[in-house]
Amino acid sequence: MRAAVVESVGRPPAPGEVDEPARDDGSALVAVTAAPLNPVEVRVAAGRHPRQAQPPYVPGLEGVGTVLESARVPAGTRVRFESAALPGFGAQGTLAERAAVPEESLVELPDAVGDEPAAALGVVGITALLALERAAPAGGERVLVLGATGAVGQMAVQLAKLMEAGRVVAAGRSAERLERARELGANEIVELGDRDLTEAFEQAAAGQLDIVIDPLWGEPAMAALRAIATEGQLVNVGQSAGTEVRLPLEVVRNRQGTIHAISSGWTALDVKAAAYRRLLAHAAEGRLTVDLEVVPLEDIAAAWERQDASPGRKLVISVGARA
Questions:
Q1: Are 168 and 210 in contact (CB under 8 A)?
Q2: How far apart are CA 217 and CA 308, in angstroms?
Q3: What is the rounded radius of gyration, in angstroms, for the C-alpha atoms of the chain?
Q4: Which one in 18, 78, 192, 193 has a CA-CA gap of 20 to 30 Å to 72?
């Protein structure tokens, strides 16, 4: 069958032929129509992951398609799914015409949400939703979304508004993409750069921050922590701005603040499936949107390189024909 294949570490995948997947107990066989790219997949293939990948392998963390065989979902059902493990270390991924995936990851899709939007909504939406739910907003909070120019950040902006945040501030490095965050519901924007970010965050939020959603870490997160309100919370979901920091511990301790760290990759599949169903309900009613671009499987190498450079939208690979 046709698939994207990583043949060696340090090179992007290319279209190729691989063996059909083998379904075992606890897995379903699906015909894949669309599979989005995620940054961790690029890091693994590039050799920038703590573990060394073992090529050749099929990448892909998630996807959308049609059930061919399943113990609990009828054949022909359109579903969203995840791979059993991070591909590259023995597991095969979803960037193939067919994939064997865990039964508990299957979520039936409504007719109102197409294949590509449903695929794009997956990991980024689940990550943003779990981060906000960890902070448990009650309504009226001042929320800062760092990295709001990326897919997770743009999803977090929309979800914060849906959770009735009092004021949502979007922060990122691209002025153009920040304007998109404003269109998606941000009350104010902050362009990251060489200035006093703590003051900029407080001014934009009209006060100290109750919740910070943080895909960046590094200095932007430290500046946000210096602007945190009493009993404020920062929820970290990534580290694209670096890991070496000087934590403003005294400020956080004096304000009795909390730092959470979550990873959707280490979250149980049934928990993620339930979160995805909550996202679908919003998407089906037009309350959530994902900026995306569909790319054919033949162009996987170019799409891979664009993903590594942060494309500002979700790249979804069109894998197979619809049933």
A1: no
A2: 18
A3: 20
A4: 18
Share of the chain above pLDDT 70, in %: 99
The DSSP annotation for 197-208 comes to HHHHHHHHHTS-
Considering the chain, what percentage of its residues have pLDDT values greater than 90?
A: 92
Asked whether the beta carbons of 288 and 155 are under 8 A apart, the reply is yes
Backbone angles phi, psi at 35, to 5 degrees: -145, 120
Q: How far is 155 from 148, CA to CA, in rounded Å?
A: 8
Alpha-carbon span 50 to 73, nearest angstrom: 36
* Per-position DSSP letters for 233-269, written without gaps between them: EEEE---TT-S-----HHHHHHTT-EEEE--GGGS-H
CB 314 within 8 Å of CB 116:
no
Residue 227's pLDDT is 98
pLDDT score for 323: 42
pTM of the predicted protein model: 0.95
Q: How far apart are the first and last CA of the chain?
A: 16
Closest by Cα among 200, 194, 205, 212 to 252: 212
> How do residues 90-137 score in pLDDT, each as one tens digit?
999 999 999 999 999 999 999 999 999 999 999 999 999 999 999 999
Alpha carbon distance 33, 321 (integer Å): 6
Annotate 86-151 with DSSP letters as a single string. -TTSS---S-BSEEEEEGGG-EEPPTTS-HHHHHHHHHHHHHHHHHHHHH---SS-EEEETTTTSH
The letter for the amino acid at 272 is: K
Query: What pLDDT was estimated at residue 218?
Result: 94
CA distance 143 to 292: 25
45 in Cβ contact with 81 (< 8 Å): no
- Reported as type and span, the H/E element at residue 159 is helix 151-162
Which one-letter DSSP state was computed for residue 288?
A: -
